[in-house]
Please model this.
Amino acid sequence: EAQVTQNPRYLITVTGKKLTVTCSQNMNHEYMSWYRQDPGLGLRQIYYSMNVEVTDKGDVPEGYKVSRKEKRNFPLILESPSPNQTSLYFCASGQGSQPQHFGDGTRLSIL
Amino acid sequence: GQNIDQPTEMTATEGAIVQINCTYQTSGFNGLFWYQQHAGEAPTFLSYNVLDGLEEKGRFSSFLSRSKGYSYLLLKELQMKDSASYLCAVRDPEGDSNYQLIWGAGTKLIIKP
Model:
């Protein structure tokens, strides 16, 4: 089954404690992207990747890092999380003119 | 600049028809997507328009006018499960990416019995 898998689905943590949200896709897609979604603001792109070892900033990259060492994985790293990064996060992947596939989301709460 | 506008919220009655509009201003255009998103869940793909006209898929239809920078999603025979947010997104091929989407903030549709 074609899917994008994110982990964890839910996380409550404290300010400054490094965390990683993993994202993996099994569709051999070249393109992957991270979004955050906050009430009233819609989906905002954090980082995206066109292929292995190629990453670019989206609209709201501050405070986040990503890596793309393998085609299937695109982890999102928060080196020193802060409360304003409390949000619902989605990973997505795509190829060609096909629609993007989304993971189930990760709800992060930073206290 | 790049901009996509949708109404923030709409209300409709079960069994009725509703039209959700989306207007866009982008540097380029290479297709428009509609996604459905239930609260707290992932967006799921509904429709894709790249040429002018109407695309019909069961109870859902989507229309595009590229000259007007306008699209709408038409939902017929509304059911309670259609209560969700509907996201409009435009593929803008500016730069080196044909994958990037510009997203509207979404329209929350409330269905009443």
